[in-house]
Amino acid sequence: MSSEYSSPVNSPTPASIDGNNRHAINFRELKKELKGIEKLSIDNLDVKSWASELRLWIKYQNIDDPETIFTACVLTSTGEVRQVIEDMENDNEFSDDDDGDDDYEENDNNFPTLDKIINTLETFYGIKEDQNVLLRELRALKIKRNEKVKDFNIKYRTLYHKLDKRRKRKISVLDYADSLQNNHEAWKRVSLKDDISLNKAFSIAEKVDRLIPKSNQDSHENYYNNMNRRSNFNNSSFKKKSFTEVKKTEKGKKDSDVEELTKRMKNLTISTCFFCSEKGHRQFECPKLQAIINENRKQFYENQHLN
């Protein structure tokens, strides 16, 4: 689609008639201005691109008349699509604002706003994505192990920008932090910063991923895997030895089992948390870190409610 429009200086100025705030629209000149916008049709249902071109035209021509905007939508559509748009004129159904997300204010001339036209076309032709489904998908999105944060952020941003304004406000930095749990370093740093924007959180996570060597990021996982393998090996050896002792003699069986188990338990390595440095749990299980995250989340949603 071409986005070349004539200068606002050369555009026709609608003349007021009958004293009713109605405007005489020069259709010939209007068609010339809109010639660069590809018409919307059944064979070309790219509503987003069509709407983007119209918004550019409205911005650069400084158009604020609802009738002119509505007429432009009609002139840049054809066939059934044009009929759907024309049927919206004077339809009371479009006088109420359901979403509260329109970029253009409602008007008293019974002409639907551009956002209402876009919403109706997307709904009518089934190309509008369910906002609640998108919100659930975004919250369920998790970074994969060894996946680059930069690549993950592209997917996260793509889903986020599909949300309307109301649902975007439901996504916080803490929701984004939850999606980073498989990248411990990025998750830890973003989780403790609840007072920053999402874009800033994206930058922090990408910087951590870029500066900290991959070997260090994987050290936690490798440490836990080694501990599990060592524990499994010790348990296996203990079982074999116990079985041998049972075959040798029944006398003193219980005492020898207890002594062997006590010795094995002493030799087991206890996990150390990399966040609070206490033993007995791992970082992502840390109660102190989780308490901080929960408190930040609570304060965030309380502030959202007050606003």
Q: What does this protein look like?
A:
The protein has about 300 residues and is mainly alpha-helical. It folds into 3 domains: about 15-125, no CATH class; about 130-215, no CATH class; about 215-305, no CATH class. About 55% of the residues lie in helices and about 0% in strands. The protein contains 15 helices and 2 strands. It has helices spanning about 25-35, 45-60, 65-75, 80-85, 115-125, 130-140, 150-160, 165-170, 175-180, 185-190, 200-210, 215, 220-250, 255-265, 285-305, and strands spanning about 15, 20-25. The chain has a two-stranded antiparallel sheet. The protein starts with 14 loop residues before the first strand and ends with a helix. The model is unreliable at about 1-20 and about 95-110 (pLDDT under 50).
Topology readout:
Elements lengths: L14 E3 L4 E3 L2 H7 L13 H14 L5 H10 L3 H8 L27 H11 L6 H10 L8 H12 L4 H4 L4 H6 L5 H8 L6 H14 L2 H4 L1 H30 L4 H15 L19 H20 L1
Antiparallel strand pairs: 1-2
Helix pairs in contact: 3-4, 10-11, 13-14
Q: Which tags fit this structure?
A:
307 residues; mainly alpha; 3 domains; two-stranded antiparallel ribbon; 2 strands; 2% strand; disordered N terminus
